[in-house]
Amino acid sequence: MEYFVYCRDRPDSGELRSELAEAHWTFMDRYAEAMIARGPTLTPDGAAATGSMHIVDLPDVQAAQAFAFDEPNYKAGVYDEVLVRRWSNTLGRTMWQYSGSTAGYHRFLIMAHGRPGVLAISDALSQAHRHYLDEGYHERLIACGPLLSDDGAEWRGTAILAELPDRSSAEALIAQEPYARAGLYESVEVHDWRFGGRPQP
């Protein structure tokens, strides 16, 4: 089962995050073969982290909870809040298999949180949603898929990792997406993001 985990940093936790970097990477090394995508969200200037995103293939929700809440940054108080959602890997690949990197482009995490009570409408628009992304953005998508309830039965939103010219392009991607145009999102977040993992020597 695939899970999307986003941990939002507390204000002024950057120093503590830096101190825990090795402990964080060591913890994540245990999940290397299960990892689909990972990396920090950043301030617009890229100077500081604002959160941490992981998409990982795990046996069940209990394993996902352990992944999120046994992690050193969480236990030490780096994070202000943690979102754990079932997810479905629409592209069927990991971020390391993405081959569309373009010089001068930027990477973004787009999280669109669904309104409650719109399951029937989201089901009706699912084909239009897939067509929109496939026709307009296929070469720019690093990973994408629906956010789901714990049992995987209910749509709870959309998570997209994309490489695009700039932030306005990322905002346009989600603003024109069929679910957004139908008013199915309660809120949308666009974060600067980069590939994560232990730095290579």
Fraction of residues in H or I helices: 25-40%
Low-confidence stretches: none
Strand-pairing-aware structural class: alpha+beta
Spatial gap, N to C terminus: 32 Å
CATH topology of the largest domain: Alpha-Beta Plaits
Tell me the major beta sheet.
8 strands, antiparallel, barrel
CATH class of the largest domain: Alpha Beta
Corresponding CATH architecture of the largest domain? 2-Layer Sandwich
Output the CATH homologous superfamily of the largest domain: Dimeric alpha+beta barrel
Family: Belongs to the YciI family.
Protein name: YCII-related domain-containing protein
Pfam family, one: YCII
InterPro entries: Dimeric_a/b-barrel, Sec-metab_biosynth-assoc, YCII
